[in-house]
Design a protein that fits this description.
The structure holds two protein chains of two kinds.
Chain A (H helix, E strand, L loop, with lengths): L1 E2 L1 H7 L4 H8 L3 H8 L7 H11 L3 H4 E2 L1 H20 L5
Antiparallel strand pairs in A: 1-2
Chain B lengths: L4 H25 L4 H18 L8 H32 L7 H30 L4
Helix pairs in contact in B: 1-2, 3-4
The chains are: A mainly alpha, B mainly alpha.
Chain lengths: 87, 132
Amino acid sequence: MKNKVRIFRAVYRLTQEELAEKLGVTRHAIIAIENEHYDPSLGLAFKMSDLFGVPIDAIFIHRKELETLKEDDAAGMAENGSHREPD
Amino acid sequence: MLMKSGHATIVGIIVLAGMVAGIMYGVKTGNAAIPPAAFLAGAFLLLLIKRSVSTVIEDEFTRLVEQKAATMTLNVTSFAFTVIGLILITISGPGNDYYMAVYAIAAMLITLSALYAATSIWYSRHLRAGSP
């Protein structure tokens, strides 16, 4: 699963250690989540959501959702391209 | 008294060294009461140290790592000892009597398998108990 934990951590100016402490987990867990090697439990995802003040789906992006977004982008670009006025 | 992770590691190593020294002393003197007592005291102290660490040292990620490590260890151990047992039973014969070792390995593997099955059933039932 894709996630934006690193981005949100940077926005809130937190170190991995500080974020781990706030969430009550180890720094190894934060590293694994940021590197997308480990998907956190629902409980931990909710804790992150509360901490960053955004919905869970703003932090974690399911691959299927990502593919849909990419398809939408591609469709949008194709549509824009077809309606482009000739120079 | 709460300790930081680094301090707890140092204290843990000291306790572990003491425990090993106690066991070795008991074995050397031939006193059967000392090794189990040293082991139990050491294990209890290590548990206290683990509980007194102020930083988080155990979470869902470390538990997942432990689960994977335990399963892999069980699989590798079972596989390796099965191979060793088969080799021993093959080369056993007059003058090379490894049957006792093979029986010991077989008993260990059967015990491990039975424990694995029993704990799997128990955890499966236990974890399902809360669901509707």
